Amino acid sequence: MVLLSFFRSNKSAQYELLDQTAVADDSDDRGPGRARRRSQSTHSSENSNRIIYWSTVIIVICALVDVVAFLCTSSTSFRSSDADAGLTRWHRTVDVESLPFKNMYAGLSRLYSDLNAPKSIRDPISNVPKRLFRVDTSSPTSPRVSLISKAHNKIKYGNIWLNDQAFEVTPSIMTIAQFRILDWGMDNCTLKFNAVPETGSTTTTTVQVDIWKRLSDRMVPLDDGMLFQAPRTEYMGSFALPVPGSNLSIPFACHSGSLETFEFSSKVGSISIEPDRVSDDAIVGPYVVQSQTV
After folding, report:
1. Would you state the pLDDT for residue 86?
2. Phi, psi (5° rounding) for residue 217?
3. Is the pTM of this model over 0.90?
4. I need a surface site. Which of 31, 149, 168, 195 has the fewest CB within 10 A?
């Protein structure tokens, strides 16, 4: 009985302790503990909102910076200003062959800047055409352009074409010649045209030749007739060439590495020259003589 009474009293004490603990927890939920947990939850929610807000702001700023950088890069790459016309143009592509010819004599201008320094004397050099086109304009709507044969014969003045068709200038046939100006400091240029008796033949005693300069900013391919489509830039004049033994001499400005393109046409008379009959010591047809300028 004593043991049973002790067990019952002990169990009652345990129940009272559990009841007190539950009451304490319940009072804690209704008191400072509950307020503390609510404050912690609110503070955590505010921190999450701040992180989301500032992350969004940073992403938007980075996107704006990327857009501005892309627009600036595009504007710098594709926009060019035309100073002469006062216009702004947008270029989608760049033709590599239209880029300026690289000067192989860079630095020589500084070397010769001292006008009192001794300079060597150089003889004039003769320059034969690098390209020679025959243009048949008998049908104005569809002119026929043909390149004079690629075969050439080396003479002491350079290379001269051995062509299957003659160099012709008639009222319906024109010839276009393109020269690459050679060397540096040889910028006094003279365009010459010879038709010597043993190689030249004409249908009249006098040939009226019109000479034009055409725009050319690149060396065209051998099988290309684009020179005929290039616009005329300067009228060199109309010249009556006595035949046989005609000789034409026209001075013009040039500079090293540049391309010079000339059109030969005729309003009155015709001239036909066979370069493959030229001797090793003669040049006939068009050629350029360059003289020293430094």
Report:
1. 45
2. -115, 15
3. no
4. 31
Pairwise CA distance, residues 159 & 171, whole Å: 28
Q: Are strands 125-127 and 131-136 parallel, antiparallel or unpaired?
A: unpaired
Topology annotation, domain 123-291: Jelly Rolls (2.60.120)
Q: What are 241's strand-pairing partners?
A: 207
209 or 76, which is more confident?
209
Contact assessment for residue 108 and residue 183, using Cβ atoms and an 8 Å cutoff: no
Lowest mean pLDDT, pick from 121-125, 158-162, 270-274: 158-162
Q: What is the pLDDT of the chain when averaged over all its residues?
A: 68
